[in-house]
Structure formats: structure tokens, C-alpha cells
Hints:
By secondary structure, the protein is mostly helical. Helix content is 61%, strand content 5%. Strand 2 and strand 3 form a beta hairpin. The two termini are 30 Å apart. Bound molecules: zinc ion. Zinc ion binds next to helix 8 and helix 9.
Amino acid sequence: MKKLLARCAKEEGLTGREKxxxxxxxxxxxKLAVIPPEEYGDFARLKAEAASVWAKAKANSDFSxxxxxxxxxxxxxKKFASYRAKKGQKLxxxxxxxxEKGFDMETLDQFFGELKEHLVPLLKEVTEKSGxxxxxxxxxxxxxxxxxxxxxxxxxxxxxxxxRGVYALSAHPFTTNLHNHDVRITSHYGKRADSxxxxxxxxxxxxxxxxxxxxxxxxxxxxxxxSMGMHESQSRFFENILGRSQAFxxxxxxxxxxxxxxxxxxxxxxxxxxxxxxxxxxxxxxxxSCPTACTCWCAMRSRKCSSRRTWT
Length: 312
Ligand SMILES: [Zn+2]
């Protein structure tokens, strides 16, 4: 395979698309070639089993049931990163490059450092002012059927094409694409209406990115998101920049009031203020925390991980 790809790379007259496909295949091949096949097989089996172990542990709120599996996954990831690491390269940088090509901890530390300088005082200031913002109406008994109607309505509202995709429930919201004509998004329902509403807007953002992939690129190595950060920028743009603005809800808030009678006496302005309420006490990542706290959480996680970036 390696030789074949090297020959392809030297081929004259390749189109830009073909060159990109060969480049991606060579990179992928280099990453996989250094891992012993039996180890990779064991890892693939472990990951397949991990999903059901995680789902059961989550349902029972029992992290200890999932911890040993997670430990094994982390160990494998570190081991594989050590196979791939170039001389002197930190393991965390190897892993980071996998999700954000060209990124390393030095760049990320600088990026989050600048962000922190502005975000922390902003979070403090906004928190002090948001105490009086009412958001109690977002919590309650919202029937699954109503949340389902709202989710499908919002996905369609932001442009998700149900002719080329499906929507379903899952333990945690996610998006997957099997083809640019088969994009699948999921969400979850609970006691917080905003959690399911914003989850579906977020996933629809991921879905739109996938649906936007050209027909001649789908199913090729370049027919997917450019990076995890790029993908997340699309979903969070829909969720936070569009979804938390008053203009977004103006044409459809009446539909939400019709689906959720709990919002009948809640004005559009009150609703928009509530979904923008800053909740710094929440240390959880989205979909349960506000965007400001969520970004701080990412920066904090990055610091925690980077302090262990010399994993061996
Ligand atoms: Zn996302």
C-alpha cells in the first residue's frame, strides 16, 4: 500500500481533488502502518464494546463501571501515539494533531491564554448581572412527544434536509454521516427544555456541514470535516451565534409556545434572556452549560491535559 501510494503521489496530471485524496491516504497509512495489526484489532474491539458499557454506566450514573474501559482506551491511545511520535515529539502533540492538524500545545496554550484573559473577567461580570434572570420555566415535565416535535421543527428551520438525513434519539446527542445523502443527527430529552432544543440546533449545524459536502467528494478521504475544530465551529455557530439571538426565535417562538404550553406566559424577550443566562456553577460541557462557561471548561480541560502531555 505504501509503495502504491508513493507511486500515485508521483503521478503526473492529477487533479487537485485526486492529489488531496492521495495525500490523505498516505497520511492515514503512515499512522496505521506503525501499529501492530493485532493491537489495532484489540483496540477496535474494545471501542466497539465500550459504547454499551458507557451507556449502561451513564444510565446508572455509575462512572466506576466505565472507568476500567476508559483506562484501557486511554492506555491504547498513549501507546499508539508513542508509536507515531517523531523524535522529541510530545505524545499530547501527536494526539492533538490527529484532531487539529498542525496544532500543538504551544499554539493552544497561547490561544487559550489570550482567551482566558478576556473570558474570565467577562464571565465574572455577566454572572453578577444574570442572577436576576428568570429561567425556571425551562425546567419541567416536557413530554417526549412535544420535545420531538420541537426538535424536528427546529432542525428543519435551520435547513436540515430530511430527504437526505434522519433524526433520532440517543443517550448523548451526536451526528454521523454515512454519505452526504445519509446524514444522521440525534438528540436527547429531559427535564430541561433548552438542553434538547439547543442540542438539536447544534447537531443540525454539524449535519448541515456534512450535507454541504460535494457529491464527488463524499465517501472519499477528503469527504469529511476538515478538523474537529472546524466541525465544532459550524455547530456552535448555529447553536450559540444564531440560536441564542432574538432574531432567530422571532419567527418561530409562537410555534414553541404552541408545542410547550409552559411558555404561554413567557414573553419572547424573557425566553431569549433565559437561554442566554450564564451559569458559571456548571462545570459540565455542553449541552447543559452556557456557551461562556463551556468555553472556559474547554480551556480548563486543555490546561489539565497539557500538564500531563509528557505521557509515556
Ligand atoms: Zn458538536
